Amino acid sequence: MSELNNRLEALRILMDEEDEMGPSGRWAEAEAMALLLAAWRAGRVSFKDEGGSSDLSFAKIWQEHEDWSYDVFGGPDVKGPIGPIKHLGKEQKELLENPDDPSEYADCMFLIMDAARRQGLGLQGLLKAMADKQRILWARDYRADPNNPDEPVEHRRS
């Protein structure tokens, strides 16, 4: 709380200086900044989103997609992971045809998320598997062919 008070005091000092906004405009701006800071600290606003929305988080999207998927297609007791994995193959082809379309990446992500959930991996389980796999990837030796920039790069097998 003292950090917030220090920031507000600094804003009060700045507000005493004259500029084109006038005193009431500067105070309104300072109050808006203070409210935004308080909302950020309470976790109601994120500044990490690149798309302009302040209500994005992977966990929220994961949960909303789970709710929708289970409502539309049934839970894991009705539908397992194989259907979404097969569908992913179709979406991969669309992504290859349209690599500039962000919605094609989203389609693939949703199918991966759905398959993982239906296999019993929650968000934390999937993130742990990703972190574990990332360490394995970092330990491997890769050699890209500069003459084939659009071809996959496989790790060297010993």
Automatic annotation (TrEMBL):
Segments forming domain dATP/dGTP diphosphohydrolase MazZ: 63-143
Organism, scientific name: Cohaesibacter gelatinilyticus
Protein name per Swiss-Prot or TrEMBL: dATP/dGTP diphosphohydrolase MazZ domain-containing protein
Highest taxon above the source species: Bacteria
InterPro entries noted in UniProt: dATP/dGTP_dipphydrolase_MazZ
